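Re: that chain you flagged

S.,

Sorry for the slow reply, it's been a week of failed gels. I finally had a moment to sit down with the sequence you sent. For the record, here it is as I used it:
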Amino acid sequence: MQVSIKNIAISLVLLLVVIGLVKWCQLSGEVRYGPGVFAPDEPQQELLSGSDSFLFNDYNLTPVANFDVHARVLSRRDYSRDRESDLSPIDLALGWGPMSDESIIGQIQIRQAARFYMWRARELPISRNQIDHNSSNMHLIPASPEIERAMKRVRKGDLVQFRGKLVNAESADGWRWRTSTSRTDTGSGACELVFVEEFEIVTPDL
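Prediction finished late last night. Pasting the structure tokens below so you have them in one place:
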């Protein structure tokens, strides 16, 4: 039986389209695990003193704390056109404690823009302080291309584990970017700037 080159080409194109659609669905869909607290503990930090700054992508980074995070992804936003994207191509809005529970976060509208994380709810499922103190927008600086690729696989609802350092950044022209070192602050300056040295998406024991 003869098979024309044209038919083979069409079949290959269709196969590539199907594979592309499957990958798009895998990357764009929201991850759900059902109700329950899947990241019970707030991020852990250990303040540093007298840490030497180091050069990264032509910016001086000064470590201010060791940082360890296990949290639920509430939202992800990629950046490529602002000054900050020289260092941080991805912001993750993260939740822990009650803000890692789908029965809670499903009642809250969450979005990110201009390096901020915003939320609103018609009726508060928990107090405003609980929402603010158990979630944060974090600017992530991948320490390597491999870590950046892992970050770009993240979807809303994922559980992530990463380690690194909270840092302050500055450049020779006087530009500066400061990290928060508190989980209870809000508004401008409340985001963590994290130099990420280890990163993974984790699956809970259900």
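What I noticed first: The longest helix spans residues 5-28.

Talk soon,
D.
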